[in-house]
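Record 1 of the preview.
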Amino acid sequence: MIRTTTTSTVMTKATSIVTTSDWRTGLPTLRAGSIVLRELRLSDAATLKQMLSTEEVSRFISPPPTTVAGFERFIAWTQQERNAGRYVCFGIVPEGCDQAIGIIQVRQLGLSMDVVEWGFAVGSQFWGTGVFQASARAVLAFAFAALGTTRVEARSSVENGRGNGALQKLGATREGLLRKSFLRDGIYYDQVLWSIVADDWWSWMNAPARPARH
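->
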């Protein structure tokens, strides 16, 4: 079950998404099973630094802040950009945690949120637990239902096997190779361009469950 706060409801396969039109003034809280996705708080800064600054997490993303104060500035920036209607960032809070252990960001690529790019980072101790897949589906549903998004793009380093596998598992389509498009520590890396479009997403969400093979 994925929930947000008030106005209209979209029913899909095993999922109820209640959309809101006031996301610019504050993000709703989404729930994906036992996982909560919410707006980042300044109190998340220390945990985010601990989770996202490790080499295994940060090697395939733009360099994260290196201090707690840097994460606090980042959190303040996310709220300013959300208020301007250009960007949203959800903190991922699994059951049993008080602070966010990862983030999912969505930013506009044009003049509105109809075409967006998303990115994500999750503490490595939560890899393989299902936290990312459940969180990602909740944020995708929010983007398509509440933001009016028609196309979501993602860029992932060719060498990031885990990230590319996660995007494929979400139903993303591999569209091409972006050569030398990501600069990290003075080295340019190739990236894979992935996309998910609204029509495909809703068709998949409303498709009947496939019978198990014996």
